[in-house]
Design brief:
The protein is of the alpha/beta class. It is built from 13 helices and 27 strands.
Length: about 550
């Protein structure tokens, strides 16, 4: 019986699968796969494919496998394989099985011989540049290779000698014999195997010929029993070749069906692995997991919740039309999730000393220390409260005091009263300056009758500020981030995305003062710095916090203007 599909999960892919199930195709079985090439770390674009493939399988009570598409030994590494597995688990998915395309090399080779024996493939002695030039162009037919009609026995012998390592790299290749005049360029005798004497991360030195993506893709799907091969839209033109290969092979099961969907693009973001790798190799970022990178590793370090990524992918849906989503829309999902889950803390990023001149002392002359009970997360009562120390010597943000206030400035200034979050009303009456004339300390008085933040006489203040007790403060380092690329569409103006790299994409603040509870933040957890934003505790460096997103919902503001 066909599994019901949630109404929120309806799209053209699920509709196609539902029709297949109604017609009894594949025996109402649904199996998908996520097939990344292990030549880099997964990025936000891959997340859409992951959510799509695993989500479709789940909706139809099917399975989704992870298949590492490792047919290019020169670019693939075990490091990337392990990172892919880890990222998928972090996103919340478990593959049915994890396999490699290289696990199927022997079967792929046997099928290649099968096509040669049918006269549907031949060994070409030309180099890649010549073959490419002979392909022709749109509206211009290609030119047949002089080796196209090579006898079957000769091609078969050469193919076997290619496998045995007799020939040098690039000296020969195996091509399918289809149609050099086909309108679809992918059908113009595509290359199936090329010679590469290179060590492979999974098969070692067993092979010196490697299949191309198009030769390995559909056949791997068939070997695994994939029913619906979900690909990004750029593979739409590859589908006739996908089907041609499968139609000419002695498959033991059903022929899988390829369906394409639009990939995800975000403003101010690049997802080209080549460009991302250049950022890493040239030292323009700290690595694949730099918090500015659009890799899942980078987003994880920055504090983006996996749930927010999944929710965003589900919300934008699945279409066949390429479009670019505003990164602010994505961040609104991050902010929404963190608002529900992140505990609140007080942190002063650019500290300014605030001294309460009328603060009491105990019998020994030491300043009295009080504690205030503060809610950890107003969105979740189960998170409880914490005790925050308060004394007569505090830190506030530099921007929260102005000796000469600008218009509409409601924060602390001389002879103006403000509220310290959850504590008291205070009023500044003097300042201390350094030799350069900069304010280094604000002197103020507090009203002991306003404990908890309200005045018994009902008077109101226009500003509430966060603070940290100076004698209890813990030092922290905070990384603030702007867009990694200044342009909405990086490279649109010059053709090179890296031309739009933002040289000021990160600011490191040292000497930040934070409340004691922040020293106990588990690595990787995200907290809200009150009035400032959401910050993630670095997984490796203690007391380093990365700004995930600010508090202001830029996407909501954009929609309001529209």
């Amino acid at each position: 019986m066909t599994a019901p599909v949630p109404a929120a999960s309806n799209d053209f892919i699920r509709e196609a699968i539902r029709r297949d199930n109604e017609q009894g195709i594949y025996g109402q079985r649904v199996q998908t796969r996520f097939p990344p090439e292990p030549n880099g770390y997964l990025h936000i674009g891959h997340a859409k494919a992951i959510v799509q493939n695993f989500g479709v399988a789940k909706d139809f009570d099917g399975i989704c496998n992870l298949r590492l598409d490792d047919t290019n030994p020169g670019a693939e590494e075990s490091e990337y394989v392990e990172s892919i597995k880890d990222d998928i688990a972090w996103l919340g998915y478990t593959p049915g099985i994890t396999v490699h395309a290289s696990d199927y090399f022997e079967q792929l080779y046997q099928w290649a011989e099968c096509l040669v024996e049918q006269g549907l493939a031949y060994v070409d002695d030309q180099d890649g540049e010549t073959i490419s030039a002979q392909k022709g162009g749109f509206g211009t037919p290609g030119v047949n290779s002089p080796f196209r009609d090579r006898p079957v026995a000769e091609s078969l012998d050469l193919l076997r000698r290619m496998r045995d390592g007799e020939f040098p790299d690039g000296s020969r290749c195996l091509r399918a014999k289809i149609d050099m005049a086909a309108e679809n360029m992918w059908l113009r005798d595509p290359v199936m195997y090329r010679i590469r004497h290179a060590h492979h991360h999974n098969t070692g030195d067993e092979w010196c010929i490697y299949p191309t993506y198009d030769w390995a893709h559909g056949q791997s799907d068939a070997i695994e029993g994939v029913t619906h091969s979900l690909c990004s839209l750029e593979f739409d033109s590859h589908r006739p070749l996908y089907d041609w290969f499968l139609e000419h092979l002695p498959l033991s099961g059903d022929k899988p069906r390829q369906i394409e969907f639009a990939r995800l693009e975000l403003t101010h973001t690049v997802t080209s692995k080549r460009r991302l790798k250049k950022l890493v190799d040239d030292g323009l970022v700290d690595g694949w997991d730099d918090a500015r990178m659009p890799t899942l590793r980078g987003m994880r370090r920055r504090g983006y919740p996996a749930a927010a990524i999944r929710d965003f992918m589900t919300a934008i849906g699945t279409t066949r039309n390429n479009s670019v989503k505003a990164i602010e829309e994505f961040e609104s999902f991050v902010r929404r999730e963190l608002n529900l889950t992140a505990q609140r803390r007080m942190a002063v990023l650019r500290p300014l000393k605030l001294t309460l001149t009328n603060w009491p002392t105990d019998e020994s002359g030491a300043p009295v220390v009080e504690y205030f009970e503060v809610t950890n997360n107003p969105e979740r009562a189960e998170d409880g409260t914490r005790q925050v120390p308060f004394s007569g010597s505090l830190y506030i943000e530099q921007e929260d005091f102005a000796e000469v206030p600008p218009p509409k400035y409601f924060r602390l200034t001389l002879d103006r009263e403000v509220r310290l979050r959850g504590a008291y009303f205070v009023k500044a009456h003097n300042v201390v300056k350094d030799e350069a004339g900069n304010v280094v300390e604000v002197l103020a008085t507090y009203d002991p009758e306003t404990r908890g933040g309200d005045a018994p006489d009902g008077r109101k203040v226009k500003s509430t500020m966060h603070w940290v007790s100076a004698s209890h403060a813990v030092d922290a380092t905070v990384a603030l981030y702007e867009r990694l690329f200044t342009a909405k569409a990086p490279g649109e103006a010059t053709g090179e995305a890296l031309d739009d790299l933002n040289p000021d994409s990160r600011e490191i603040l040292t000497g930040c003062k934070v409340e004691p509870a922040l020293a106990e933040t588990p690595a990787g957890d995200v907290v809200q710095f009150e009035r400032t934003g959401y910050f993630a505790a670095d997984p490796d460096q203690p007391m380093l916090f990365h700004r995930t997103v600010g508090l202001r919902d830029e996407w909501a503001a954009q929609q309001k203007k529209k």
